[in-house]
Write the C-alpha cells for this entry.
Amino acid sequence: MGVAIGLLIAIGSLFGGFAAMGGHLAVIWQPWEFVIIGGIAVGTYIIANPMSVVKDTGRATVEALTGAAPKRADYLELLGLLYALLRELRAKPRNEVEAHIDDPQSSEIFSNYPSVLKNPDLTLFVCDYVRLIIIGNARPHEIEALMDEEIATLRRDKLKPYSTLTMVSEALPALGIVAAVLGIVKAMGALDQSPELLGSYIGAALVGTFAGIFMSYAILAPLATKVKNTREKQCRVFVIVKQSLLAFMNGALPQIAVEHGRKAISSADRPTIDEVEAATIPGGAKGDAAQKEAA
C-alpha cells in the first residue's frame, strides 16, 4: 500500500505540476526513448549478473512490493518453536529430539509452527545448530563464530538484488543522456525542416534525460531501498535463533534463552514478554508438570 501511495504522489506531482505550468502532457510520451533507456538497462543488468541473481531480483522485488517481511506473529512462532525444542533437549534423551531435527517436515513440533517450515533456509539453520548441540562436542564460542559466518553469508546473498538494483539506478541518468544524444542526432538530420518540427525533435530528445533521472531517483532507487529493508528483516530471524541457542548452550533455561532471542527483534515488531509467554508457556507448563510428576 505504501508503494502504491508513494508512486501515486510522485507521478501525480510530476504530471500535475508539468500541466499546471502550461506543458503539454503528450510531449512526455516518447515510447522509443523509454525503450532505449529500459532496454540498455535490462541488457547490461543481465550481462553483469548470473541468472540466479536475476531471478532472485524478481523475487525480491515482489517481496518488497507485497511487504513479505516477518511480522509479529512470525516472530512469536519462531520463539515458540525454539522454546519447544529447547524444552525437549532438557527433558528428553537427545536421540528422541534428533528425530525432529532429521525430518522437520514430519515433526510434530515443527508442524505446530508452519511459518517456520515455509522458510527452508530458516528451518535448515535451526536444525543444523540444534544438531550440533545434540552432538555436544562444540563449544559455545565456536558455534557463535560459525553462526556469525553463516549469517553473514546469508545476508550477503539476500542483499545481492539490492546491490544490483542500486547499480542500475546509478546508471539510468547516463542512459538517459544516451537516449537524449540519439534524439539530438535525429534532430540534426532535420535542420532543413520547419522550426516546429525541429523543436518537437529536440523536445523528444530531452525527454530521454528527464526519463533517466526520474526512473533512477524516483522509482528504482526507492525500490532498491525497499528491497534492502525487506531482506534485512528476513535475515533478522537467524539472529534470533543464534541468540536463543547460544544462551541455552551457556546454561540458560529455555524461557530465558527465548528472551535472549526476543531482545534481538526490532522494537517496532518485538512482542512483549506476556505475548511470548502466552505463545510458549501453555505447552511448556504442561511439559514442566509432566517432568515434575516423572521426578
Notes: Residues 240 and 265 are 7 Å apart (CA to CA). The first helix runs from residue 2 to 20.
